[in-house]
Design a protein that fits this description.
With about 550 residues, the protein is mainly β. Helices cover about 10% and strands about 30% of the residues. Among the domains are: about 160 residues, no CATH class; about 80 residues, SH3 type barrels; about 60 residues, no CATH class. The chain contains 9 helices and 32 strands. It is elongated and about 115 Å long.
Amino acid sequence: MEPLSFQEYICSLDPATLPRILRICSGVYFQGSVYEISGNECCLSTGDLLKVMAVALQKVICEDTETGQTTELPSTFKGLFQPAPAPGPYPTLRGPFLERGRQQGLTLHQVLGRWDGRPQPLLCPTIGPHALLLHPVYEVHAAMHLRRDVVKIPSTLEVDVEDVTEEAQHVHFARPLLLSEVLGMEEVLPAEAEILEGPAGPAVFVSAWVPRLQRGQRLQLHGRSRAWRVLASAPSSSRHFLLSSAYQGRFRRRPRQFTGVQELAAGLQPGRRLCVVVTQDCEGRGDGVPPLGVGDRLEAQGLQGEGPSTRLLCHRHSGEEEEEEGEELLLPLDLGGGFVEEMRDSKKYGLAELLEGQALPCEVRVVAPDPGLERDVLGALPALRLEARLDQPFLVGSFCERPEEGFEIPPRWLDLSLLLSEEPVHPQAPCTRCSRVEELTEAFYYRLLAQLPGSRAPPPPRPPKPAQAGTGPGGRHPSASGPPVPSAPPVSTRPAPPPLPLPARPRLSTPNQYGRRGPRSNAGTESNSAEHDYETVDDNIQKTIHKMQAIFPF
């Protein structure tokens, strides 16, 4: 067929013949880029193929032939139309159309259904006495090559099209998929795929295979992973991990530490004994609370009472043997102190075995690394905190050039767009090595921790707050009047002092009247020292100064 304008073709299209395949004959817009306005496709390039699936009437623009004014008619318009004589260049209409129109009138949809795509003058008493021209606007739903979704194209887009349905029956419109969609299509796996668009958003894993997930990379998708995961972190550092249930390392439990009786009560687990050793002296109180000394052995047994009077019932052993006589203590929950769990378990556990008898979170240490890993990063950590079990679905994949080195990717966290291969899949080599430990980025760890049920995740560490410009000693502005106010004496909960810089020749200093340390003064500093509150040098600072003196001798 000869090329037609898109509007003319769609207006004359019989919906019963759908689907139809069209080729764009002219109309390269915006340098061939793809733009969308309100969800509609508004850019098609010469040579593009469209598979028209459906056509929906959006509205009808009604033009008065005498005044030129236009109004929009909804698709539900109830008025009836009759043919009108066509003045000037407009063509005359046809016998059956004229006859039925003169006799009883036609609805809006009847008019459009008998239209050959060219404007026809009509009369509608509901609108006015003048002849009208109707310009329908359709929304065309079509499939295109390498488009995930059905595109929506307005029929008024100024492009010319050609119907190539007969000669393009063999054309396959490849539809990209998201990895999260493939997760629910296990019947198509295993399969080969090409990445069309890599993952977007912040990084999830600190792994060498993640940066290779780029456009053009070919993957082998082996299937869905049946493993579950455990979220873990290293208390001695800011590193965080996901451990697969396939991890073959061996763990040993580490004793828990508690600061205060309230934490000790929270550590009780049904059906399990909790024996601790006191690590910090605690003075008694007048309300019947006995003193606790370092080395005391306690067995926490349960809570008694309600409300503010709730207390933790403990049994204090007088000797090394638990069978020996002791005494019962009722400790208030607001009592401070330090306790460490008394543990006599030296057994080595696998991950699944450990979680069967141990509630999370818990602290462990890897005593035997996974023999299947070239380098088990967990074996070098002094402690590992297992925080929660996760059942997030993963897909097992590998790069086509090295199919035996696999990785497991979580599509809901790390999604990407890909195209499944239409060619038959060759027998794939099994993944003999697969990632069992993945290190998480710090940002994703805190985001994941906040999503856990019942979790009250701490915020990520913040950078130090910069000092405000224009302030003097003690945070006072130089223009402030009046004598400086000495700072309050430090309390035990104040943050640790910032690390000291390393000057070329460190010198000791004496406190000045602002509670800070400055150069030694010759103006009677010693005589006024009793009149002011001074900060004392912290033991840690003293140790740092001694180290500096050793590095930079006077």
